[in-house]
Design a protein that fits this description.
- With 176 residues, this protein is mainly beta.
- It has a single domain, classed as Lipocalin.
- It has 1 helix and 9 strands; from the N terminus they run H-E-E-E-E-E-E-E-E-E.
- A hairpin with a 2-residue loop joins strand 3 and strand 4.
């Protein structure tokens, strides 16, 4: 009976020892990294960042049928979240780089419509937008361009110590 217990005992000890090891797949945040992904929201005149029907996916107005690039902005339970996606470059063959929003300000089209967003940094690069939100040519929220955003998009490259500005126009895609 002693000979059958030894292999079982050895297996039990091996399994307990294996459970004590740390998972090698976990990666820890670097020092100074934000603790969460909350978005700092600054309201315009005490009003919500955007009207309820202006949240959603905004695509480049001059790029019909192009998949992926644009701004997704959401509001749920009073929390604003979203991301901005751009082409990862000419050599990337359609791959996108996504930047989560870190700050959103303004946006009430019944007021000044002034709207600003800033993204989190990825590999030393981050984006900012400064422009206006306004009612577009869409007749209802079920039409493309019910809301539009026009302004200046700036790419900040902290590694190369450069910035690039371009004027863009985004349209809210239809909610079908």
């Amino acid at each position: 009976m002693t000979t059958t217990l030894l292999p079982t005992l050895a297996l039990t000890i091996a399994l307990l020892g294996a459970g004590a090891q740390q998972d090698p797949g976990l990666q820890h945040r670097p020092a100074g990294a934000p603790a969460d992904q909350t978005v700092k929201v600054t309201l315009e005149g005490g009003k919500t960042v955007l009207p309820e029907d202006a949240f959603g996916l905004y695509r480049y107005a001059d790029r019909e049928g192009e998949f992926g690039e644009g701004l997704q902005i959401n509001e749920q339970f009073g929390e604003v979240s979203g991301y901005f996606s751009v082409s990862a470059g000419a050599k990337s063959r359609g791959k996108l780089q996504t930047y989560f929003l870190s700050e959103v300000e303004g946006g009430d089209p019944t007021g000044s419509g002034h709207f600003i967003f800033t993204t989190r940094q990825v590999h030393g690069v981050w984006y900012s937008f400064d422009g206006k939100v306004f009612r577009g040519k869409g007749a209802t929220a079920a039409d493309d361009a019910y809301y539009m955003m026009d302004g200046t998009l700036t790419m900040h490259d902290d590694v190369q110590k450069t910035t690039q500005n371009k004027t863009i126009s985004l349209k809210l895609t239809a909610t079908h």
